[in-house]
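Fold sample X.
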Amino acid sequence: MRQIGGCDRHEAKPLSERVIDIRFRSLGERFQRTYAQDLSRHWGKVVRLNPDGTPPRDNPFVGQAGALPEIWSSGFRNPWRFTIDAPTGDLWVGDVGEHCWEEIDHVAGGDGSGAGADFGYMWFEGAHEFLGVPTGDEVLPVAELAHADGDCS
């Protein structure tokens, strides 16, 4: 089993499991914005693992050159809390914004449509363009909270 995580900031998050015994783990980008979009790193991602720590064969990046097979979805800053909806297998992720916005993301899981989704950090913070040029394929949050309104995690 390959070790995932292991730093003291913006990295190791709650481990959850689905009814079918697949495990998800969220890892923050460690204050390195580009990590969230770099598929050769675990940071800024939600990873999906079998109970023995191996990636399931149907993970979206298995066999893709330059990408880690454990990655389920990318483009997170610091996905510090998440839960799995047992009936659907969907993930709901609370992601900490950098400057102005916190966000809640929905990662479809049960039907596999969330596989490979890019949630847009660093191109977006919440639903607002942030740094760089978006690709147009980013999944925007289902809700966002403004720091200016006193909402900060």
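Fold sample Y, listed below.
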Amino acid sequence: MPSMEPPGLGVERGEPAEAKFNMFVLYHAHHDMCPRIGHTVLMILPQEIIDRTLRSPQGEQGYRIVETLIDAGFEAWWVGGCIRDMFLGEIPEDIDIATNAPPEKVIALFKKTDDTSAALGALLVSLEGHVFEVTTFREDDSASDGRHPESVK
């Protein structure tokens, strides 16, 4: 029986991508989605969409990237539109990953990277024919329009 733990917390390398785990999402609502600006809600993705996504080629490789980062001692999270797609019951075509690993550490962990935007903390990681944007956690300054920051730290 597959592990119930996410990668890096007990799932062995080579474990099938359908290894079961719950994906919890802290969703920070924006003004256009929630009347309470800044309201944070804990949501759980349905296991069925997690399983279907992890069985897809894109999901399997996204899982491997997160697993590699966690095994190296870093945090890593799927973020953005892929989470929205999964809540809509769709397998995401594009998976973005956020991590506390600095760009130079991400480059050292993966053979194929594009560091064109490394100064902004973003890299493209290629794995098995799929490309993922891996971005280092950052702190945004105030946003004049409520969504796009004036600058990034």
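Sample Y note: The helical segments are 47-55, 57-71, 81-87, 103-109.
Also: The radius of gyration is 16 Å.
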